[in-house]
Amino acid sequence: MLGGGVHEAEVTLTCPEEQDCHLGSPAIVKLEAAIGTTETVMIPFQGSSQASQFRNLLKRRHDLRVDSFTTLHIPISFTPQTMKLHRSTCTVIATRLDGKPWDDTDGERVDVVRFIYPVEGTPHRSIPATMPATPRSRVTCEAQSHVEQTLQVTLDCVEPGDSGFTCSLDVPTRGRDDLQQAVAVKLLAETTNKEGTSVVLTLCVVFAPTRIFSHEVKLLVKSRAGAVWHFSLHLVATETSFDDVITMEAAGLARTSTVSFCLTSQTR
Known about the structure:
Organism: Priapulus caudatus
Number of strands: 17
Order of helices and strands: EEEEEEEEEEEEEHEEEE
Strand content: 35-45%
CATH superfamily of the largest domain: Immunoglobulins
Structural class: mainly beta
CATH architecture of the largest domain: Sandwich
CATH topology of the largest domain: Immunoglobulin-like
Shape: elongated
Mean pLDDT: 78
Largest sheet: 9 strands, mixed
Radius of gyration: 30 Å
InterPro entries: Ig_CFAP47
Protein name: Cilia- and flagella-associated protein 47-like
Pfam families: Ig_CFAP47 (PF26579)
Domain CFAP47-like immunoglobulin-like: 132-238
Low-confidence stretches: 1-25, 45-51, 128-135
Distance between the termini: 68 Å
CATH class of the largest domain: Mainly Beta
């Protein structure tokens, strides 16, 4: 706490190794944006960051007056140009308006207080929602059955040398009960082009639904450098087909007909 009264703050876009006084350990501010687009987030009070992908959108960055118990929102934008995780810091440098120092808990005089927030920006690539569904993006299986289907996805804009891809599914809330134990994705192989900027992943989708449903999910591919690619995947569980047809011939009106058939258990 800075105490009562009016304080003066300065917002900068630098990455110095500040040593005067660091207060608090705020959570990392995370942004995610598609390549070539801009994502903006509001940071309440604290701010500083430096990288070409991050920008401080405050028009005025010096001599900002912050009254007691008020909040200064600092907008930070993220415009990624490369497919890798970007990190920076966002700092507020605060001084008392009357120029007097603060006394810390050890009785030392503190002239400048710095609030530092780590900032992370995650770039991602997505298949457009308007792209028509193809057989490769659709996995179909009868309920109470099991299917394994091989898919190939292409990752573009890969940073040279980036590897170590992991796959996961982003399931909507309404589909979690159906898909929690019904689907899994395994990475089988990855092939990189000569330039190292494009990678083709071969995946195996294991689908074993227990009931009928149809859900659209996102297949998320994350690289070691922190980039994320999004792909649409349509999972459809259809009605179970008949095992056989039982035919009964009538013995006549008001007479009972019977038929015998065998049932074989598939499990012990």
